[in-house]
Write a sequence for this structure.
């Protein structure tokens, strides 16, 4: 089984990617929320 772990945004500079449309986001202000795109949690790719 494959499980997605939804992580909270914790630090400035973290980068996330949407596995559906390819959008990428770099955190400029950390607020502790979760990033969602295309109805799915975004994957943390660095930071």
């Amino acid at each position: 089984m494959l499980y997605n772990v939804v992580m909270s945004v914790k630090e400035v500079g973290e980068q996330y990617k949407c596995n559906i449309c390819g959008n990428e986001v770099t955190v400029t202000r950390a607020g502790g929320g979760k990033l969602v795109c295309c109805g799915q949690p975004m994957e943390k790719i660095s930071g």
Remarks:
- The beta strands are 15-17, 24-26, 36-37, 40-41, 43-46.
